[in-house]
Amino acid sequence: MKSATAVGAPVAPTPHRPRKSVTGTRISVAALFLLPALVLLGALVVYPIGYSVVRSFYDQSGDGFAGVDNYKALFTDAGIRQALKNNVIWVVFAPTVATALGLIFAVLTERVRWGTAFKLVVFMPMAISMLAAGIIFRLVYDQDPDKGVANAVWVGVHDTFVQASAFPKAHPGRESPLKADDGGYVTRTTVRPGEPVALPLVGVAPDQMPDDAKKAVPAEADPGKITGTTWQDFTRGRGVGTLGAPDPTELGYAGMRIEAVKDGKVVASTTAADDGTFSLPAQADGARLRLPASNFKEPYNGLDWLGPSLVTPAIIGSYIWMWAGFAMVLIAAGLAGVPRELLEAARVDGANEWQVFRRVTVPLLAPVLAVVTVTLMINVLKVFDLVFIIAPGSSQDDANVLALELYRKGFSENQPGIASAIAVFLLLLVIPVMWFNVRRLRREVRR
Question: How far is CA 321 from the centre of its chain?
Fold first, then answer.
């Protein structure tokens, strides 16, 4: 029996089959499903980028061609130069510190029971928007220690080592035997043993007096010493109390420092007791008594976190607070895939924990660390919300970054051409970092 496909017999044409994609899906169907995404990509990404590039070559009105003048402004405008300088600081420090903290947290919490709870707490700020985080840290960095957490802690540490004055508002009243002297007060006349000295002051609110202050009492005369009393010479009620003499309701200035000054030198010093009384040795004879300025200095109010010199580091600190958890979670995921036998082999060979961490763990985590660092670098190039919210108007110029300057040029100063040039410049800064990340990811896939 001869086959139907014998030589000379006509061959039936192969029916046309629709071309398919690599996944086996018809190309027309794949294009149909991709069309909405492509439309959105074109409308939200491609068109804005193209329009910004074109607009960056036109003047403020958009009618006149400005050439590269807008790009020249990137390097001649003082505000843009400051923003560029701050962006460099952000790119160098924020990703590095956040990644380092994430690495430390991931490694240290791996061996503790409550590691998961700790990671949850550290990662929680990621659930907060930049706007909310900015408002939180605007309060954290408040100058008033009663409101700002940062200064409350800082002042508490400072006052632990440096005693604060309890009498910053104290000053002599009417007909006082004291006069001003280099921030403090000194008696108008010299003192003699056996003649009690009265050093009355006013100006301290009753609720601000030291807790250990007691009712002031007149000092007893001592022929061999200089004695006296320093107290709050004020009694509530009009016409109540005796001026220049301790009354039953008046409190002594407990802890007030008194110095005996003779010929410009301090020959003796002491501090007042709880009832305001004090005594000095006979060598103070003929001296003037001085209440030094240290008694009246204003209390330490901490650092000006949002001032010109600290505003950028302060805002970077808030950013690290938010993104250290992101770094920690990614690094912890990478750490979970590290072969434990390599770590144990290093320990068996005599390596201590620091050597294991530095020579084994970190090299094995290098790809993950690179991903985290590059991601954060791209992120900080676009930072805007934190700087806009946290930095007050008085120091916003000092904290300026390119994204904020873009907003100010485009909306506050009505210079859309320069704003578009800044946007294009930011895109050019991000592209090399993205290209590096894509290449590195492709190398990882090949492995």
Answer: 9
Q: Is residue 416 part of a domain?
A: yes
Q: Are 157 and 146 in contact (CB under 8 A)?
A: no
Looking at the fold, whether 442 and 389 belong to one and the same domain comes out as: yes
Last residue of a domain, one of 295, 317, 337: 295
**Cα 166 from Cα 201, distance rounded (Å):** 13
Asked if the structure places residue 51 within a domain, the reply is: no
Counting runs of H as helices and runs of E as strands, what totals does the chain give? 15, 8
The domain total for the chain is 2
The helix/strand/coil state of 171 is: strand
Give the burial class of 68: count Cβ atoms within 10 A of its Cβ; 0-12 exposed, 13-18 middle, 19 or more buried.
exposed
For residue 233, what are the domain limits?
178-295
pLDDT at residue 439, as a whole number: 82
CA distance 274 to 269: 17
Whether 291 and 314 share a structural domain: no
Q: Dig out the tokens for 154 from the structure.
A: 């800082």
Are 245 and 218 members of one domain? yes
Give the pLDDT confidence of 123-146 residue by residue, as tens digits: 999 989 999 999 999 999 998 888
Measure the CA–CA gap between 117 and 12, rounded to whole angstroms: 71
Report the C-alpha gap between 299 and 282 in whole angstroms.
Answer: 34
The closest of 46, 40, 130, 55 to 423, measured between CA atoms, is 55
| Domain-ending residue, one of 295, 316, 344 | 295
pTM: 0.75
Most confident of 63-77, 112-126, 293-307, 322-336: 322-336
Q: Is residue 57 part of a domain?
A: no
Compute the Cα dihedral for 435, 441, 443, 445 and give only its sign. negative
Q: Report yes or no on 34 lying in a domain.
A: no
